[in-house]
Automatic annotation (TrEMBL):
Chain ranges passing through the membrane: 41-59, 71-92, 104-125, 132-153, 165-188, 240-261, 273-290, 311-333, 339-361, 368-386
Molecular function in Gene Ontology: potassium:proton antiporter activity; sodium:proton antiporter activity
Top-rank taxon, per record: Bacteria
Localization (cell): Membrane
Any one annotated GO CC term: plasma membrane
Recorded topology in the membrane: Multi-pass membrane protein
The keyword Transmembrane belongs to this UniProt entry's keyword annotation: yes
A Pfam family annotated for this UniProt entry: Na_Ca_ex
Name used for this protein in its record: Ionic transporter y4hA
InterPro entries xref list: Alkaline_pH_Ca-Antiporter, NaCa_Exmemb
Sodium/calcium exchanger membrane region domain mapped to chain residues: 41-189, 244-385
Keywords: Membrane, Transmembrane, Transmembrane helix
Length: 388
């Protein structure tokens, strides 16, 4: 007797249909005049395609394993981010010249404070102490902060060109340095020192909560194993992975194209809410990184804190390490100046974030105290972005 066929889940059906639907709507709406209702529907479809893109990136990531999976997710999110930035900059509206800076800075604040803080909070609430591999996580943080300083802080202090902008040669150097740092990080993460980015093995030197049971049932030693891998999760087949890879590409095309159509509505919404033009960058970063925040939170709930932090800090490094070089190349054709220098308020928040993150990562474990501090700094960033 043949075994009954398994029906695909509603999630699988929707994530397969959405990219195709997004591309079809993109083709129909590209030259059409859209009303308010059309703009709202396209906005909903845009967010759905972002969720679909991250879902398919997760499938491919699960197939290749850690830390390659986190890298794929980070690169996919960064492609969406760069596409949104360029499409909005091409619109030529007020504030477009600083959009890359505002989006990159918002991405750093969201990933290092918002997503990482959420991961640490969920991990600490689940096991009292959130444990992670400090060496690998700290190296990702160091790369993100180094690139941020080279590309977003230095333009504020250079004197070759008036204003918070680079000269052509300075921009070329900063973009090249960013690319070198990020590519070196990718090499270290995935080849040279891959073990630094895997969940730590708890040894006899790593205590756990009192009364916690060990794999063998012994409570007296006070230590347990933590591998962070989902033992009950079945790896997708090669066919499923290749299908998701193709749908991921379709999703990226749909997201970038729909963002181009929706860009006037995004800017009008920010303006009508009485928010500064720079808040458009925050909106872009939130749209792009929200699905990744969900993925990181799911991993933290499953006691995979390291995977969640790989997503957070890997996205921070990718967002700044890939976005700035790409925008630097694109600036050859983009209209207007490219303002990269942060304001004094933003530099202060970046310095506080770097110091707090370094102190959090140094011990290789964190409690709700560290998580709360990161989340409070994140809330402060959102407030002062709206009320500078």
């Amino acid at each position: 007797m043949s075994s009954p066929r398994t029906r695909p889940s509603p999630l699988a059906v929707s994530t397969a249909v959405l990219p195709v639907l997004g591309v079809l709507v993109l083709a129909l709406a590209w030259t059409a005049e859209l009303g308010v209702a059309d703009q709202v529907l396209i906005a909903v479809l845009l967010v759905a395609c972002v969720l679909s893109a991250v879902h398919h990136a997760e499938v491919v990531a699960h197939r290749v394993g850690e830390p390659y999976g986190s890298l794929i997710l980070a690169v996919a999110v960064t492609i969406i981010e760069v596409g949104l930035i360029i499409t909005l900059m091409l619109s030529g509206t007020a504030g477009a010249e600083s959009l890359a800076r505002d989006t990159a800075f918002a991405a750093l604040m969201i990933t290092i404070n918002g997503i990482a803080g959420l991961v640490l909070l969920l991990g600490a609430l689940r096991g009292h102490i959130a444990r992670f591999n400090a060496v690998g996580t700290a190296s990702a943080l160091a790369v993100a902060l180094s690139i941020a300083t080279l590309t977003l802080v230095l333009p504020k202090f250079t004197t070759a060109e008036p204003g918070p902008i680079f000269t052509a040669s300075q921009l070329t150097f900063a973009a090249a340095a960013s690319a070198v740092l990020y590519l070196t990080f990718v090499f270290v993460q995935n080849i040279r020192h891959r073990d630094y980015f895997l969940p730590p093995k708890v040894t006899a030197a790593t205590p756990v909560a009192a009364g916690a049971k060990l794999p063998g049932g012994d409570e007296s030693a006070g230590y347990r194993e933590q591998d962070g891998e989902d033992q009950h999760s079945v790896s997708p087949s090669d066919r499923a992975a290749w299908t998701s890879a193709a749908l991921l590409l379709l999703s990226l095309v749909a997201v970038v194209g729909l963002a181009k159509i929706e860009s006037p509505a995004i800017e009008a919404g920010v303006s009508s809410a009485g928010l500064p033009a720079s808040f458009v960058g925050v909106v872009i970063a939130v749209i792009v990184l929200f699905p990744e925040a969900l993925a990181a939170a799911r991993n933290a709930v499953r006691d995979r804190v390291q995977v969640g932090l790989n997503l957070a800090y890997g996205s921070a490094a990718a967002s700044i390490g890939l976005t700035i070089p790409t925008i630097a190349v694109a600036s050859i054709w983009l209209p207007g100046e490219l303002i990269l220098g942060l304001s004094s308020l933003q530099i202060t928040l970046l310095a506080l974030t770097g110091l707090l993150a370094a102190l959090t990562l140094l011990p290789g474990r964190a409690t709700v105290m560290q998580a709360t501090m990161h989340l409070v700094v994140f809330a402060s960033f959102l407030y002062f972005a709206a009320v500078p």
